[in-house]
Amino acid sequence: MATRRIPETESYEEWRDYCGFILEHSPTMRSTVAEHPLWWRELARQA
């Protein structure tokens, strides 16, 4: 979300891929995102 708010950011895809990887491989992150879906709306949709 942060990189989308900064038009000059060129690393959106890299951060999206990294966050997806962490979400996929981390039970703790999946649990945290599931508990607080409004904090990370895009990640909650991926979970």
From TrEMBL:
Q: Which domain of life is it from?
A: Bacteria
- The identity of this protein, by name, is Uncharacterized protein
* Species of the source: Streptomyces maoxianensis
